[in-house]
Amino acid sequence: MKEFRASVKKEFLHIFRDKRTILIVMIMPVVQIILFGFAVSTEVNNARVAVCGDMSDPQIRRATERMDENKYLEITAILSSPGEITDLFRKNGADAAVCFSRNFGSRIPDGRASVRIIGDGSDPNTARMITSYISGVLQDTAADIDISVSGEKQSSMTPVVQLMYNPAMKSSYNFVPGVMGLILMLICSMMTAVSIVREKETGTLELLLVSPVRPLWVIMSKLIPYLLLSAFNFATILLLSHYVMEVPVNGSLALLSLAATLFVIASLAIGLLVSVISSSQRTAMLICGMGLTMPTMIFSGIIFPCESMPLALQWFSDIIPAKWFIILVKKIMIQGDGFTAILKELGILAGMAAALLAFSIKSFRTRLQ
Amino acid sequence: MNTEYAIRIRNLVKKFGDFTAVDNITFDVRKGEIFGFLGANGAGKTTAMRILCGLSRPTSGSGTVAGFDICREQEKIKRNIGYMSQKFSLYPDLTVRENIRLFGGIYGLKDREIKEKTERMLDMLEMKDAGGRFAAELPLGWKQKLSFSIALVHSPRIIFLDEPTGGVDPETRRRFWELIYDTAGNGTTVFVTTHYMDEAEYCDRVSIMVDGRIDAMDSPAGLKERFAARSMDEVFRIVAGKAVREE
Amino acid sequence: MKTIEISGISKNYGQVPALRDISLEVNQGEIFGLIGPDGAGKTTLFRIMTTLMLADTGSGTICGMDIVRDYSRIRKIIGYMPGRFSLYQDLSVRENLEYFATLFGSTVGKNYDSIKEIYSQIEPFEKRRAGKLSGGMKQKLALCCALVHKPSVLFLDEPTTGVDAVSRSEFWKMLDRIRKSGVTVFVSTPYMDEASLCDRLAMIREGRIIGTGTPEQIISAYPYRLLSVAGGNMYPLLKILRNTEGVISCFSFGNALHLAYDPEKTGLPAILAKIRENGSEDCRIREITPGIEDCFMQLAGK
After folding, report:
1. Chain C positions in Cβ-Cβ contact with residue B166 (cut-off 8 Å)
2. Which fold has domain C222-300?
């Protein structure tokens, strides 16, 4: 036991004395969250809207006010003719424009009033999102207008799309679980693999092996520090996403931690496996970087949804622990699901972690190859 | 250009911060001479050698290598010297022929010249049948001879050998020195470092660096007489044993 | 019982044979040297003996324990210093030492006596990171780390490679003191001149043991007569002598040539005549007893 404690302490000294590592470990989650949160933002956030129409028309004024009151939209320009819109887009002065037809208010009763919503198609994803958001707001307004104009509620056949759990279509709801999976995966597998392979490279592993210390202790002393580090990272990401990205934790925090622990164990075991097959730190980094990060990025749904992939790839994504972890995080954090609802995913992840750990410990040799 | 000396170094100093790695050394190496450059680990040999090879600039001092200024004409120096160290010499994943062609190409030899030289070299090294083998597969002694020949592929005026014989078996080591003798006999100047003191005896002249200075420089016979020693090993212990500096 | 006994050890890396039928015996309390050039298989043999690697064929015991079956017991009683500096560069001198002591279930305090003599030389730098030590100090620290649990057998794989002549002789003095404390030392080196410092030695080349015994035994088994020829301008003479009838070999040794001849085929007068014939009359020629290096070259040439 004393040997084990000394080894864990030694591992921590390695981590804290390598400024680069500790910086990466501490800063990476923050950078990732900020990067995904602000730079790669795909959500409707402070969308600048230009309005084109007769502002003396009370109905137009009312619709405009409604849009301006909405916290995701911002009216930045009032134009008098539709011709100015192109100019404004070219100067990047607005993200979308709303064009009310002439005599809008007076034409409402006979149903000939029309509104055009014009998006900046040079960024199709954003444009689609903003325009559909605006049309949602206008539909709400139209319902009110109908009431006030005709005095009676008309049943409308226009479907109102509402995104449950994420009314503003915030992308942070999507990427926070993804980033969490990515970072825990990277920290655990890459750091573990590199730290073991480094001992291979410097020859210290030879010394550890010729000592009476049981290989299991060597492995555990390598895993524990990274387990603690990833707990720290997990907390960082959670705090950042809650207070900066305003992603709620609707479900149980304990359940979330359980899922994370299982995932971390699976990742540590993968790191151990990588260390067994690679002979240099560079190889280990490459395997972790390309072999683990890329599939995690692709199959975790951070970039595009798994459901739109070919069937074969979807099957392949099933063997990636990160996929299940990300599903779990989404279910617990955002949907607020309880234990029974996530039993299947939790079971799969636990099974993977146990199998990987057993296999990697078994393949870690008591001798050099 | 001076015709008599291959290397002339005057008051060479190299400092790293407040650490003086090379402390005011002055020496000449004649053309065709085998010059042994000895010193304990950390005495400043490697630093001095890097300056001579045009890889690093001195803090102060002057000198010429192969007739070119060590401060201003580093590129010309590089083109006119050969360098071989045991650590870096051949690309293990290239074949013998590919290695020769690569280095010939690096030094700007024409294709026809490279072809000719390759055949002549393989002939001389008695490695005709090994031309297609990967360098990694060759026995250590062969690798050494091959990398030596490759360092000579562009007919440099001076060849720098950095511990060329470390760990090689005794006979191969001696055969290697015979190769060095042949090379020097053809007029190429040989500048060599070694940890084997018996090899110091094979040099025409030897310098011993201690704490960045050259504390002794003479022919092996002269040094043994001066320090009343029977072998260069003893001379080295007497001279280098005075070192105060740690690596 | 011999401290180390191995027999018939062979090991291949793929198609390449690294060790071929190696058998050795090492007595308790002696310095046993394994001498041979790089690539001879020294490190492989060390790894097999220290239970780090399995041999393809053959068997062995360390202090009576089987190197395959009893590997975990062997690991408790041996100290090992691998070929390159293998300590934690980012840990301090003291941290390294303490860590290795703990690994073997011991403490620095308990065994301080056994390393005191060497450790006192690096003790002033206790807080320095191991990576910042000079070559000589690193070597001393590595030796301390291998000794800190009071091993019965100490394995040192090329401890003096790349070390200058002054530090090398210091190191051998330390080994001598370690042996006096009762530890069996198994050490490898590519430097032939270190052979005479061993009690017994084995010469290894291309994975085969080509000779073994005390230095005296090996030297007395030298089958030829040996001459030392010293004088000016030796290189041309070497080439002539090498091609002389009855001369087995001729190589330069420091400032002289060592010429081995078969007394049944030629004699001293014939060789002297040959030297005079080539105008090298000022040569000093004397018969000498061979050194280990002469023996190695003779045995390697067989």
Report:
1. 38, 161-162, 190
2. Alpha-Beta Plaits (3.30.70)
